[in-house]
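User: Show me a protein chain along with its predicted structure.
Assistant: Here is one chain, sequence first, then structure tokens.
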Amino acid sequence: MKVLSVNRARAERVSIDGRSVLTGIAKRACEGPVKVGTLGLDGDEQADRTVHGGPSKAVYAYPVEHYAFWVAARARVGVASLDEPLLPGAIGENLTIEGVTEDRLWIGDRLRLPGCVLVVSEPRFPCFKFAHAMGFAKAPKLMFQSGYCGAYLAVLEPGAVKAGDEIELLPGPREVGLRELFLSRAVRNRT
């Protein structure tokens, strides 16, 4: 398990469905170590802290294993071709990770990296800004159907993170699975 990319963005205004919206979803990979504190990565901004950011959602991690799914989905609806890759950060994640997916994570699990310790706090729930980033309106629904939500992480021990960092998974209480929590809310949203 490791960090493939560290991604951040400044909040910017974009036009979504004819209205001006502030968003920080367009994350881009950055070089070298990046400081991580209790409110997230140094230099990263969230536009709406009522749903993103804060101590329990300081860092968002997303498994690279799901990127092929999104490439295929975008090709299927005609917004991109199958040979058009998604760049790290395309899902809005701060950490593009490899080797650990939602079905292996539980609320309270710790991710120990060489320069910091993060703790799984909750799943990410998609919104209209995710649809805009993916290029098609049904992207949030597809995330709910697939369960490919990624994980919000709180910062237990601040420090730094960089691409290539190995991740050690330290089990928490193992009472609430990340994917199960996400899917239970997805069911509630459909009713």
